[in-house]
């Protein structure tokens, strides 16, 4: 699994690419938007610089890490020599299926195709290819180069060999692995979406402020981040897509909070837009009015 391709240069894709390069993999990061690749390059260079300043990387190691990452807008170039491809695009089934079909055409026969989906079916995605036994989900967490967990989710036809190779790839990046039998939402997203959605309902109902809801979860239940802070970090548009998928597949208890839909319609998407349940503009953290 020496050569790794990552499809999608956003927050998750660039973080996975960086984590893989740090662990010695040759990485090709692909995105159709040159601007996304420019942002990914800048992000990775800043992370490397911070690691040097904090003594986590030596200058030589940093240089070697950066030399292992290449960038392309061509999905053909990304897949043609890859041993493992990790797709990290938006949580939209049609988009993921389309990418997997393209990868199936251009990748060598031995290539494993993994999706970084947090909720969707690797069986459904893999069934659209000629290699469902080589399709799997590898769910990294944000930020991928810092968070330790990877959920590895088997599809119906995923082979033991594919699972073992995906697991080894994750372990080689310094990650801890949990094996999950496919079901919508897997383990973490299913639980996390429920907690976050209930926090949004409580905020909408006036039970407590966003700051106090988050504070209660951090100090009372020892969560490292409050559920509303975490939703802002993930992106409220991403969380809404997750909730809509889980609502469609698992039923009424996953109906998205109306406040979440309202914020997304208003363009309040969390940290990436500067405003969500908190205001991040000009580095001023303050709670927004419901």
From TrEMBL:
Residues 4-182 form the 3-hydroxyacyl-CoA dehydrogenase NAD binding domain. The record marks 139 as: Important for catalytic activity. Its EC number is 1.1.1.157. Pathway: Lipid metabolism; butanoate metabolism. NAD(+) binds at residues 8-13, 31, 91, 96, 118, 142, 272. Residues 185-280 form the 3-hydroxyacyl-CoA dehydrogenase C-terminal domain. Transmembrane segments: none annotated. Keywords: NAD, Oxidoreductase. GO terms for biological process: fatty acid metabolic process. GO terms for molecular function: 3-hydroxybutyryl-CoA dehydrogenase activity; NAD+ binding. Belongs to the 3-hydroxyacyl-CoA dehydrogenase family. This is Putative 3-hydroxybutyryl-CoA dehydrogenase. It comes from Halalkalibacter krulwichiae. The gene is mmgB_4.
């Amino acid at each position: 699994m020496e050569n790794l391709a990552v499809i999608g240069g956003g927050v998750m894709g660039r973080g996975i690419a960086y984590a893989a390069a740090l662990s010695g993999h040759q990485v090709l990061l692909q995105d159709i938007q040159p601007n996304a690749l420019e942002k990914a390059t800048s992000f990775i260079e800043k992370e490397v610089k911070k690691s040097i300043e904090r003594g986590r990387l030596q200058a030589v190691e940093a240089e070697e890490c950066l030399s292992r990452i290449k960038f392309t807008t061509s999905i053909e170039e990304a897949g043609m020599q890859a041993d493992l491809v990790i797709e990290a695009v938006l949580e939209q089934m049609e988009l993921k299926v389309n990418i997997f079909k393209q990868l199936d055409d251009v990748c060598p026969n031995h290539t494993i195709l993994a999706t970084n989906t947090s909720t969707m079916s690797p069986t459904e995605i893999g069934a659209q290819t000629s290699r469902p036994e080589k399709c799997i989900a590898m769910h990294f967490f944000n930020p991928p180069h810092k968070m330790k967990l990877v959920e590895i989710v088997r599809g119906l036809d995923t082979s033991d060999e594919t699972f073992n190779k995906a697991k080894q790839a994750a372990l080689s990046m310094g990650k801890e692995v949990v094996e999950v039998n496919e079901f919508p939402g897997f383990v973490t997203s299913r639980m996390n979406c429920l907690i976050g959605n209930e926090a949004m309902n409580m905020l909408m109902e006036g039970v407590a402020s966003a700051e106090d809801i988050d504070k209660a979860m951090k100090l009372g239940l020892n969560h490292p981040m409050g559920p509303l802070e975490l939703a802002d970090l993930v992106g409220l548009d991403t969380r809404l897509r997750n909730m809509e998928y889980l609502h469609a597949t698992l039923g009424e208890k996953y109906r998205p909070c109306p406040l979440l839909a309202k914020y997304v319609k208003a363009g309040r998407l969390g940290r990436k837009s500067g405003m969500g349940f908190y205001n991040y503009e000009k580095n001023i953290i303050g709670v927004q009015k419901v």
